[in-house]
């Protein structure tokens, strides 16, 4: 009976509350697992902080990861993978474990449809569509992580793994990279500083993980379409060959029937999969994310390179090729991953400002990235552009954007800035003038945007500050708008008028 009541309770929860409760429960269980694994060598507050940082794929750690037990590394790897799967997939998994099939709940399926499908209005997805989307996300994640791990294993220099096995270091780094966690079991990636190819592998994983699953699913559907066309051509070639054989000999070899049968079967299966796989982004959102990501990467790369190229503590001693690879790597990681190949405490102040801006913006929605998201930032710029002409709708690439998307973008931005301002004041009071304000602010933005960069402050935090930073990570990962909806009991985002014409853009 208690279990039945618990299931009924979870079935009545709104999506926002289920997300918040699911992430908090995962952090709580993870903290106990880490505490037990370290056998008392790690305080419970540090265990809780490390668990929150892992689930929220942040990358900040109050202790050196190289000094933790191998079992602890495995637990962290599991937490990183679980937290990095994304809000939707994480909730489906947690909900399934709790209620034995929450994806069969029509209300939940309707919310999933509204949250992931930017090409349609709110509608209820079928259970098999939710399951296919989840399976696709998991396939994408695991495939890219395995490819990245193999690439690192084969190419990275000998000895960079430290006291760990080469294969586990490669696997941990690949999973941490794709999920934008920024954790390294050797504490940093300084050992790869002079290995551009390995840095580009890690950068590629970070970019794919941070751009968002809707864009990757769109790419998957495009590749499936191309593959179906190739299969069709194979089928036509097989049929042509069969006809030639039949005209010459009067018989059709059975062997020639197999390619045609297999091609027809595969074409039907791929076509059915492509038709029912939902969750892809719109063409407009894809352009925003791809162009936006490129612009931010270029901005960060150029700024970091020119500001640090003569800094004796960072880039000055590097060869030109290594300066390029490290500047690009730092630009990529500034938006969400938090990997470092050098001590960030030696960066120029202007470089720190650039990194802070990149951290706050973050990556794409429904991915492993943090921040307010590129789409939110771009919508705000488009909205500000229309301030002088308030009667005109917000437009991107020549198309009108949904009023609802613009409204949510504005709310996310102001909620984030107001919340960060209050937390910043409180952290300043707790710090008691021990550290510079820019160091505290940098740590705060890094936590909220789940990046993991630090100016050497994390290890000096007190217990209350660690709990507060863990809460900031939690809000940054779940989404401040989601937390607000869960706290107020609101069912969702109201429509801006009876008709909301325009392209829906995912934000926050």
From TrEMBL:
GO terms for molecular function: monoatomic cation transmembrane transporter activity. The chain crosses the membrane at residues 12-36, 74-98, 133-155, 197-219, 288-307, 344-363, 408-430, 437-455, 467-487. GO terms for cellular component: plasma membrane. GO terms for biological process: metal ion transport. The keyword Ion transport applies. It is a multi-pass membrane protein. PANTHER family: KTR SYSTEM POTASSIUM UPTAKE PROTEIN B (PTHR32024:SF1), TRK SYSTEM POTASSIUM UPTAKE PROTEIN TRKG-RELATED (PTHR32024). This is Potassium transporter Trk. It comes from Leptospira soteropolitanensis.
